[in-house]
Design goal:
By secondary structure, this protein is an all-alpha fold. Helices cover 61% and strands 2% of the residues. Helix 1 packs antiparallel against helix 4.
Length: 189
């Protein structure tokens, strides 16, 4: 989990760098010239998009970021679980916004039971993905817009009564919306 701590350290440096840059404070040139400084700069740019703007929220964010670097085993697994839990909760909210009747508490209950081995899955991961995809596809599938021939003909007859409408021998009704200028094209053009 050294990579995890390194990533979190870089993340902290990035946010701190972003906070200094916003206040006009320049970090030491030695940091800017290092791999750590470059990595932190990239992360700062990325994190500024979602970083809270008000001082109290930004302070809490930086406090949490710093806390991440004090994580020691076995607590790193706990915090990893928190990160995954936040991601799952975000996905559940997204599913709810699409109209899916997903219960967050039931989902986490089943997820924990499956991961701990207390329950066996009722379907494979592939089957579960197919089930979810079919559910979403069924929700967004719309019936084709059907118009009866009677309604179509009524519309055509109404348009044919419009001033300037021309009915061609084929039954197509043309209405000039804006009169053009210049020469008319000849046959074959």
């Amino acid at each position: 989990m050294i990579w995890f701590r390194s990533l979190l350290l870089a993340l902290m440096l990035t946010v701190c760098h972003g906070a200094f840059a916003q206040e006009g404070v320049k970090p030491a040139d030695a940091v800017n010239d290092s791999i750590s400084g470059a990595f932190a700069t990239v992360w700062a740019d990325y994190l500024r998009q979602d970083m809270p703007m008000d001082t109290a929220a930004a302070s809490k964010f930086l406090e949490g970021l710093n806390e991440a670097f004090r994580i020691k085993p076995p607590m790193e697994q706990y915090y990893r679980g928190v990160l995954v839990g936040l991601s799952v909760a975000e996905r559940i909210e997204s599913m709810k916004s699409m109209g899916m009747p997903v219960d967050g508490e039931r989902t986490i209950e089943v997820l924990c039971a499956l991961l701990s081995g207390r329950e066996k899955p009722s379907m494979t991961s592939e089957q579960a993905n197919e089930y979810l995809n079919n559910y979403v596809a069924g929700r967004i599938r719309q019936e084709p817009d059907t118009v009866s021939s009677v309604r179509e003909q009524a519309f055509v007859d109404e348009v044919a009564q419009t001033a300037g409408a021309v009915t061609l021998p084929s039954g197509v009704v043309m209405v000039t919306l804006i009169e053009g200028v210049g020469e008319c094209p000849s046959a074959g053009e």
